[in-house]
Request: fold
Amino acid sequence: MNEIIKEEIFYTVKKKRFIVLAALAILGIPVITLMTKNNYWNDLTYYLAIQKYLFYVFGPAVGTALIISVYRKKYTRNSIIQVEEFKVKRPVGVLARVISGAIILAVCYAVAMLVVLLLGLIFGANLSIVQTGELALRMAMDCLGCIVTYTAALFWLYLFAFPIVSVLVYLVLMIAVPYVYQFFNLYVYGYYKYVCYFVPKALTDHIYSNLVLKNMNWLNALILLLQIAVYYLLTILVFKFKKKDKKKRKKKSQPEETETVVNTAPAPAEAGA
Reply:
């Protein structure tokens, strides 16, 4: 599995589309910093501006960059060929894809965090220890939500072997649903309890709020693990169906081959003569 993880990481990060999109997402942090400084500059405005940028731009951008960079022609078929070449089981191959994507996203968020802290020092944002800790926690939870949502998008990528559907699903789960709930203030009325069951980003936002308030709820962590497990199992089912279809095609071709062998055999009378 380690070899597949390495192959996927190097295959993805060397693509120009990933380099360009990830670089643009990270370069957006200095742009937001300069815009905030020109408008009204203090620790709170910088803190809030970075959080807003992470929510609406950075996470969706790096996740989209990852999906379209992981994609290759005949994605599902190439994935099957890959696991056969490395002589591992198909669930292991899927797990390797999930882990490699998680590593890439974690590195992107780590780089973004370093840029945020460096710019804060250079421009004198004067973030307190509490603000820095909360911002780091915010980025960690956003990264976790991004990883789980990527796992969900990966299932659609395996299913359709085309990135557009997967990207749309990813953006809906990362931006559309959480934005609607925030815009209409639906979190206040407790409706988040239902959307959190299906939208990882909403769940990680809720976990972040609880952690800030020092109200850890282990049920939320269990739900997050269940979401990962469900998306992973669904992806495995795609492989199972592909395997069954392949077997059916083989079974259909076997009678034709048998008939051909029988028809070409010499007749008994001719053999006696």
Summary: Confidence is low (pLDDT under 50) at residues 244-250, 255-265, 267-273. The CA atoms of residues 91 and 236 lie 6 Å apart. DSSP finds eleven helices and no strands in the chain. The first helix runs from residue 2 to 13.
